[in-house]
Every structure is written in structure tokens, then in C-alpha cells.
Design brief:
By secondary structure, the chain is α/β, with parallel strands linked by helices. About 35% of the residues lie in helices and about 20% in strands. Strands 9-8-10-7-11 form a five-stranded mixed beta sheet, sandwiched between helices. Keywords: Signal.
Length: about 325
């Protein structure tokens, strides 16, 4: 046999036979271990929880009924609304989603992402909905970038389920120098990028400049935890975030010794579940599920658990943001 002669497998079997055997082994391994892709895992979990007899199952679009779950985009760094604990995403939104799941008969599967990517994720259909302490605004409804004023997408419909304003907090003992937003001219603030707090800080910075004072130095971070760390280490003078988040940070950080809230809530507005335009049947099913959780008392129990009863709603509205 010359050096150029192809060598047959040692077993004497042809490559076709060996390949077929390998394919069979691979298939057996897959059937034993299961497909471990995120999509496959979500489908297996959905099969365990899918309940065609749930009160509102038939209100869902047929495609969602068949799939048995919704992919939910969420920024899980926003305690107590959504955050990670022992690897799981927990908080106000996940608890409400679980209560809604009982009514809908499908699983609402939370996916962690940075807040400023959620709208793009809805547009690309990576997520079916977004539930992430997202303030219902006209700009988001219409798909307009709040910074540039340019159209960036088709926009979303909101199912409103919570009311929250923007709060300002400082290091403990520093309220003598900063007591509200008017005191921030010439000082610095940390916020989470793309939030209402970020927009409000930019508006206040313009106001300072218009009034002939030094502007506000704004540092924007991917998540609220980074903004809190910046304040804790005295890198900025203040942080702004939604009321539930600010209240939780003040209560828990350093055992309540790190921060204090200053001034009153501003820009009070509803949180909404964001649903892509054109998904009216899904939107209305989610609205009905929230209404059912209010009626059966689950909603009140969840707000009480997280100590945010004052932020609850009595009526679920669509696109109620101003």
C-alpha cells in the first residue's frame, strides 16, 4: 500500500457506517441528557406548567397557547422590583408575573438584560414582552428616543400596574447641603442609563444652566447598583431612581446607615408591561390577568410583602402614561 492510499477504519467498517453509528450515539446522548439550549429548557419548563384549564388561557393568542410561555425582558438589578437572589430573579415584578401565570396557564420566563436594550429586544422579537419597572411614557408608546426626539421603532402598548415617582437620595448626613433637586446645580449625580431619572436629571441640568448656575454633572450607568456604589464611595453627590428602589436602597444599604432620601417624589407615573404594537390580543389577556390578581387579593399581598402598598393601582389602564 502506497503512502497515498486511503486507510480504512481499523474496524474494517466504512466511513458511512461509522458516521451513522456516531449519529445514533449522539442522538442517544441527547435523549438522555436533553437539549440544553435556552429555548429547549424554556419549552420543557413550559410543558410542566402549561394549564389549558386556567381561567384566562383561551384569551391568549393561539401561538402563545401552543408555545406555553412568554419570554420576558427585564433588568434584574433593580431591587426590590427585580433582582437576583441565589441565582433566581425575584422581586415585585416576578411575583406579579407568577400570580398572572396562574390566571393565564402559561409561564412568564424572565430574561436578564440591561435596561436600555429592552426596547430593542422587543423590536427584534427576542422578548415577547418587557416587565422591568418601565415607566409608561408617550415617547415609548410612539417609539421615540427621549434624548434625540427621533423615531426609532414602532413603539409599544403598556398595561399599567403600578405607580412610582422619582426619588433623590444622598449619603447619610449630607442632607444639609442637598435637600432637593434645586440644590444639585454645580454638583454631581449618578443614574441608571435610559431611565426616567436620567431624563429628569438632564432636564434639571438644562434648568441650572438657563438660570445662570453651574450645570449638573451626570454619570449614567448600566444598572442602579453601580450608581449606588458610586454614591457609597463619595464619587457623586446624589443618586436618583424610582421611589421603590430608592426606599429599598436607603433601608438596606449598610443596614440603613449609608443613604437618606431628600425632597419629595417627582414625575410620578405608572409602570407598565410593554407589549409590541399589533399584539392587542396578548395585551388584553395580560390586562385581564392583572385585573384578576387585584380581584382575588394576590396583588395586595405582593405589594404588602415588598412594602410598597402606597404604589398600588385600583384600576389596570392601557397606555396611561402622560
Amino acid at each position: 500500500m502506497t503512502a497515498s492510499t486511503r486507510r480504512r477504519p481499523a474496524s474494517g467498517r466504512s466511513r458511512t457506517a461509522a458516521g451513522a453509528a456516531t449519529a445514533v450515539v449522539a442522538a442517544l446522548l441527547l435523549s438522555g441528557c436533553g437539549d440544553q439550549t435556552d429555548a429547549a429548557i424554556a419549552k420543557r419548563e413550559a410543558a410542566k406548567t402549561r394549564n389549558v384549564h386556567a381561567p384566562l388561557f383561551k384569551k391568549l393568542p393561539k401561538a402563545v397557547q401552543d408555545k406555553g410561555f412568554l419570554q420576558v425582558g427585564s433588568d434584574a438589578t433593580y431591587k426590590p422590583v427585580e433582582f437576583r437572589k441565589n441565582g433566581a430573579i425575584v422581586g415585585i415584578d416576578p411575583d406579579l408575573a407568577a400570580a398572572m401565570s396562574k390566571q393565564l396557564g402559561i409561564k412568564l420566563n424572565f430574561n436578564n438584560a440591561t435596561f436600555d436594550t429592552l426596547m430593542g429586544g422587543l423590536k427584534s422579537r427576542r422578548y415577547d414582552i418587557a416587565m422591568s419597572a418601565m415607566t409608561d411614557t408617550k415617547e415609548r408608546q410612539e417609539g421615540i428616543d427621549s434624548t434625540t426626539g427621533k423615531k426609532i421603532g414602532e413603539g409599544v402598548d403598556f398595561v399599567d400596574y403600578f405607580n412610582a415617582g422619582v426619588s433623590l437620595y444622598v449619603q447619610k448626613g449630607k442632607s444639609d447641603t442637598i435637600s432637593d433637586w434645586a440644590d444639585l446645580c454645580g454638583k454631581s449625580i449618578a443614574v441608571q442609563r435610559g431611565t426616567v431619572s436620567h431624563d429628569y436629571a438632564k432636564d434639571q441640568a438644562k434648568k441650572c444652566k438657563k438660570d445662570g448656575e453651574e450645570t449638573i454633572s451626570i454619570e449614567a450607568f448600566d444598572n442602579d447598583s453601580e450608581a449606588q456604589t458610586r454614591l457609597r464611595t463619595a464619587g457623586v453627590d446624589a443618586v436618583s431612581s424610582d421611589y421603590p428602589v430608592a426606599a429599598y436602597a436607603v433601608k438596606t444599604s449598610g443596614g440603613g446607615k449609608d443613604f437618606e432620601v431628600v425632597g419629595d417624589q417627582v414625575e410620578a407615573a405608572p409602570y407598565g408591561i410593554a407589549v409590541p404594537k399589533g399584539q392587542e390580543q396578548l395585551r388584553d389577556a395580560l390586562k385581564a390577568a392583572l385585573e384578576a390578581t387585584i380581584k382575588n387579593g394576590d396583588y395586595a399581598k405582593i405589594l404588602k410583602k415588598w412594602q410598597v402598598k402606597d404604589a398600588g393601582v385600583k384600576e389596570v389602564k392601557l397606555n396611561g402614561g402622560a
